[in-house]
Amino acid sequence: MVAPSARSLADNLLRPRSVAIVGASGDPRKTTSRPQRFLRHAGFAGAVHLVNPAREELFGEPCHPTLAALPEVPDHVFVLTNAEPAIETIRECAELGVPVATVLASGFAEEGEAGREREARLRAAAEAGGVRLIGPSSLGVVNPREKVLLTANAAFDEDLLPGEVFVASQSGSIIGALVSRGKARGIGFAGLVSVGGEADLSIGAVCEATVDDPGIAAYALFMESLQHTEELARFARAAHRAGKPVVVYKLGRSAEAAALSVSHTGALAGADDEADAFFRACGFARVDHLEALIEAPALLRRVSARTWAEPPRVGVITTTGGGAAIMVDQLATRGVRVVAPSPQVLDRFARAGVPVAPNLIADLTLAGAKHDLVRSAIEIMQDSGEFDLVCFVIGSSARSNPELAVRAIAECADGTVPLTAFALPDAPATLELLDTAGVPAFRTPESGADAIAATLARTVPTVRPRAAPPGAAPTTARVLDEAASARLLAARGVPVVPSVTLTVADLAVEPDLPFGYPVAVKALSGDLPHKTDAGAVVLGVDGPAALRAAVERIVASVAAHDPRVVVDRVLVQPMAEPGVAEALVGYRVSPAAGPVVLLAAGGVFAELYCDSTVRLAPVDAATAREMVAGVRGLGVLDGFRGTEPGDVEALVETIVAVSTLAEHHPEVVEAEVNPLSVRAAGRGAVALDALVRIAPPQGGDRSCR
Amino acid sequence: MVAPSARSLADNLLRPRSVAIVGASGDPRKTTSRPQRFLRHAGFAGAVHLVNPAREELFGEPCHPTLAALPEVPDHVFVLTNAEPAIETIRECAELGVPVATVLASGFAEEGEAGREREARLRAAAEAGGVRLIGPSSLGVVNPREKVLLTANAAFDEDLLPGEVFVASQSGSIIGALVSRGKARGIGFAGLVSVGGEADLSIGAVCEATVDDPGIAAYALFMESLQHTEELARFARAAHRAGKPVVVYKLGRSAEAAALSVSHTGALAGADDEADAFFRACGFARVDHLEALIEAPALLRRVSARTWAEPPRVGVITTTGGGAAIMVDQLATRGVRVVAPSPQVLDRFARAGVPVAPNLIADLTLAGAKHDLVRSAIEIMQDSGEFDLVCFVIGSSARSNPELAVRAIAECADGTVPLTAFALPDAPATLELLDTAGVPAFRTPESGADAIAATLARTVPTVRPRAAPPGAAPTTARVLDEAASARLLAARGVPVVPSVTLTVADLAVEPDLPFGYPVAVKALSGDLPHKTDAGAVVLGVDGPAALRAAVERIVASVAAHDPRVVVDRVLVQPMAEPGVAEALVGYRVSPAAGPVVLLAAGGVFAELYCDSTVRLAPVDAATAREMVAGVRGLGVLDGFRGTEPGDVEALVETIVAVSTLAEHHPEVVEAEVNPLSVRAAGRGAVALDALVRIAPPQGGDRSCR
User: Fold this and answer.
1) Is B222 on the interface with A (CB under 8 A)?
2) SS3 at position A576
3) Is A608 helix (H, G, I), strand (E, B) or coil?
């Protein structure tokens, strides 16, 4: 027999030849009695060893006092005891050379200082012997293909449907919910892991370990918070290479839910925006409907990740006008482009004997749900070259007469472009039939539109390995003053307004400016990040006397605002010509996602509308252009309402320049160009104010593990 | 026997003692064979008369050549023939005194001029004999309680679940979809009507006719477009008096879907916004998830319509932290306020032996899904006075052990505040059990949150009967010039900036202004609705010479912009002091919804963000305040980011004043105050520009029927 340690992590995790259940119970009402029962009920073919010093047998099977007393070293140990005994068990695992252990107990890092100390001991115990841990707080590991039910979750007390989607979840109850909801839809799973507290193996590490498993075709992740991103990024690249798409559902779209698991990191870019940016860079499809997590993988397998030159075109064809209109509404409100069949396509319909009126939807209601007509119509849509995806909305025949339209749809599964379907009535058998035939099908229009939108938005992963993993936000950061901030950003290629630094004492004599009046005058201090609030800015200063008066006013205002701040220098800049729009270009090192670049419209409205877009930094020009298109308030740059179009390319170059801080200035933890005045097309852009925060390089303790 | 005509419309519609099927077929593959089969299969107790001149019997039952040949006048005739023969049949119905007929055929108003003419003949045939029509294009009328299956929809070829919700739908296929989806959820219906083309009985009229039916407890409407609003409003008031809540799903949230059924009526307030305003005024709860249409009625029956003094407080309690976090996310993103249990409640939990950590969610995971503990915890939440609604998120026990938490939840159905539930796993039996017990339950977190948000947003109906029904937008409207517009609005109480009208000829001598310089100068013409675009405005004019120059510039600019417009008069106004914010207050007579008042932030951003709110006019101050709160861009009025708070009350008074056009100026079809400059609190607001469009009073042909 191969030593357990010589087998792969994935094999020991998902295909153990032998398992041990430590803390197994003989009381059938107890949670800890479940794993033995589940394994036996499912018919697990490997050895099941029971460990409980208080019992000699459990449900007719022998029980051992310790792991050491077992006849072999198990490939995977499931630890059901409380926290402290669990640490003891992991120590025993380490001594014996057990390769993988899953820990059910809670009471670790989530429970304050004492819990963190306990988790450190758990981890140390495992590391001492090379034991890889799932958990703590893990509801277990399930592989329906091999009847591995190492779980205490009551949801697994039934027959499981094997499938090709692998689920990893930070919430234990979700794996049970997905199993039952999948079953109701005829969708099974290749494996389900509740990763729990991720003390050792993170959600990314678990998935990466399984990426060569030929029985896994796609991944579905349920996340409560974004952590261990380096491993998630490594998995993203591996999954892309293996051609296995990933769909993710993450809590925290709302501040309330985000607060339940993770604290905010900024005013404009909440942690969820950063997670969004991270998933995008990973090439993950993020969905917002729970059931889309189950339904999207089939579609993701049929539509490859790519950057579309033009927005992808979805064609909608139906036997129910009302149902199709619902789907159009759902798609369009998510920004998916639904296009009408052209006159040429309508002509081909007519020649095939399928009467279809010119409309956004190809409505076959008049033709009826007849097999041959439906099939011809779908093929005409697929072969037209006018659509990148075709969505069939099936009416009542989906439930009452699947041999009509449904059979025709199933036969078009491998047509020229991917085909997907939504059934208006409740029709679980039809959805399963279509999925099996290779036509991804959806139970609700909302889940379907969510999955389609997320699928079409998915690009190839761009996330790169990082030199050092991100850590907690440094607390010792300091703010550079505007002049120093501007110099640092100018060196990266950000166009900044020219400026002169004057000491307040200098102003006794008339200053010699390299530009003419009028000018803007600002206090220069690293202690004044919000200069306007402190009365530290005077605009439109039109001569030397006014300049002196402005400086005096600034000194007085700042002193009144905060007596601890002494203004001894000011920055003088020429007044800029008015721009078409003002933008905010920000940069931040997110503790979870790493460096990100942010774009928002300038001014109070962007904040009121929470109108900003975030990407992992650095970005290329194409991504920066995508960001500009993603900020509604910057729509003025397109020449909205007769105004002159703005210099989008200058804005794009600035975004790219700011984003390169990620590569060139690891000491910068935050930067903000606000406002960047974007002028009319061809006339450039200029940063009117800038702020940079830097932190000293940190030592090895910066690692988050 | 009572003559059919002496019975109520509802009785003949939903409880016919006898029905006739005209155009019934003997070919079981044909749609037209279905009604006979459905009625017999369901066991309809009344008489079923078959009419088909080509047949003597159908499936063993006698068949008659004409309606006149029947032994009695049927209460309800279902007409399955094509369009022209259907008109003939309605004529026959009229002669015989048939009270209600449902017409399946299409080919009427939706088919252009010929179709409209056909529909006029259909209507005339019915009116001649007092026949009330459902349809044309109706898939039928179903009453599961009385086994009335007057439908040709294949979806009804199965056993139906009777229930207490009445469905009326502008889409025929939806009634079938709701029946099967409801059945999968254990929810049945009191009746389902496909209203089709509403040539006679509109969706509102059908519902109003049934409002006294004691077997109907709530209504679910599916709408493709807003029409026949006077009848819908009448139904809304009747439903409210009868204590029967109404939930509505309407297509057209997206422009694409709106275009499928109805054309746009304005730039900022699309038809869908007007529908939203109309539903709100009707006290309808509007949902966005298809299945919320099925699931919301149970909740609406338990939470009465009201205006909440404070935003209603939702408490979330759970046996699955992850599942509850999903629900919190869904609720919070819809603006529903989720509140944490207070320390007092946590203390009561502790004394009841239920360990709950302080958090937004009352998480019973540690306590476990034990019947007594769950029941105590729910009762503590319900009795605390801290929540207006309690939502229980049930974990795996919902599927595997409903005798634990689920039974406890069911027992709390009649607690101090309404209780609702979402089951994380697939658990149809549990959902049905809870619904039956009186705990509205939800299959998905999205549908649940949608239903909860819509329920809590519902108010008592405020919609009033209108003197005349709205009609198509008049084509002869003309624009009043700014001076006339301002006078009309000032008379309604809108604060307008003072102004003087000068003829261009006057300017040879220095004008005598009742206010000082600087002034604003604008061309005065009803032919220049967009003055700025035409170069017809000059601001900051600081003396008589500058005024002359400004007028010359305006005359030249307008001539260059549009040679057909001759500027012979200008309006001169004092330059207004700068305000805290600019708003747009609009008014419009919507062809569907009637007079509406609109509020948006001023400037280009409001358009970019589609940030506006619409209500039926007139509005009271409370509603106007609600409108101000509903426009994100007007958040600056609250003193955002250290700016001075704005005079919200002056804005509110202006909205109310503009909205009174609905009562005092029936000739006004559109008005716009843009911008209204809102000053700091206590300093008022002032309209800087105004525009009014009026149409001559129209004759009787304005009616839409």
Assistant:
1) yes
2) coil
3) helix
Provide the strand spans (E) within B513-616: 519-523, 537-541, 569-574, 581-590, 594-601, 612-616
Hey, is the C-beta of A611 within 8 angstroms of any chain B C-beta? yes
- Burial zone of A646 (CB within 10 Å; 0-12 exposed, 13-18 middle, 19+ buried): buried
Contacts of A395 in chain B (CB under 8 A): 173, 176
DSSP B610: T
ipTM of the predicted assembly exceeds 0.95: no
Question: CB distance A253–B333 less than 8 Å?
Answer: yes
Torsion of Cα atoms, A101 then A102 then A105 then A108, to 10°: 80
CA torsion A307→A309→A311→A317, rounded to 10°?
Answer: -100
Strand-strand pairing, A361-363 and B140-143: unpaired
Q: How many Cβ contacts (< 8 angstroms) between chains A and B? A: 220
Gap between the Cα atoms of A294 and A170, Å rounded: 16
Instruction: Output the 3-class SS for A299-343.
Output: HHHHCCCCCCCCCCEEEEEECCHHHHHHHHHHHHHCCCEECCCCH
Percent of chain B with pLDDT over 90: 79
B320 touches chain A (CB under 8 A): yes
Residue that is written with structure tokens 């990893």 in the block: A168
Question: Is the pLDDT reported for residue A112 higher than 90?
Answer: no
DSSP string, A350-393: HHTT----SSSEEE-TTT-S-HHHHHHHHHHHHHTSS-SEEEEE
CA distance B627 to B636: 15
Q: Using an 8 Å Cβ cutoff, are B456 and B275 in contact?
A: no
Answer for the pair A541, A551: CB distance below 8 angstroms, yes or no. Answer: no
Helix (H) or strand (E) holding A20: strand A18-22
pTM score of the predicted model:
0.93
Residues of B in contact with A276 (CB under 8 A): none
Enclosing H/E stretch for A674: strand A668-678
Measured CA to CA, the distance from residue A458 to residue A285 in angstroms comes to 6
User: Residue A573: phi, psi to the nearest 5?
Assistant: -135, 150
Of B698 and B672, the one with more pLDDT: B672
| Rounded Cα–Cα distance for residues B128 and B134 (Å) | 16
CA nearest to A98, candidates A72, A64, A62: A72
Instruction: Read off the tokens for B202.
Output: 């509109």
**A628 touches A571 (CB < 8 A):** no
Q: How far apart are CA B535 and CA A253, in angstroms?
A: 45
DSSP E strand boundaries for B424-505: 441-442, 478-480, 500-503
Q: Please tell me the least confidently modeled range out of A532-536, B170-174, B628-632.
A: A532-536
- Which among A326, A391, A443, A450 is the top mutation candidate for probing chain B, defined by the most B β-carbons within 10 Å of its own β-carbon? A326
Residue B665 in contact with residue B638, Cβ under 8 Å? no
Q: How far is CA A621 from the centre of its chain?
A: 22
- Give Cα B203 to chain centroid, integer Å: 13
Residue A267: how many other CB atoms lie within 10 Å: 10
What pLDDT, in 10s, does the model give residues A558-603? 999 988 988 999 999 999 888 899 999 999 998 888 999 999 998 7
Q: Where are the alpha helices (DSSP H) in B242-333?
A: 255-261, 271-282, 292-302, 321-333
Give the residue-averaged pLDDT of A276-298. Answer: 97
Q: Do A604 and B641 touch (CB under 8 A)?
A: yes
Which residues of chain A are within 8 Å of residue B331 when distances are taken between CB atoms?
Answer: 254, 256
Specify the pLDDT at position B269: 42
Burial B685-705 (b: 16+ CB within 10 A, else e): bbbbbbbbbbbeeeeeeeeee
Taken in order A596, A600, A606, A611, is the CA torsion positive or negative? negative
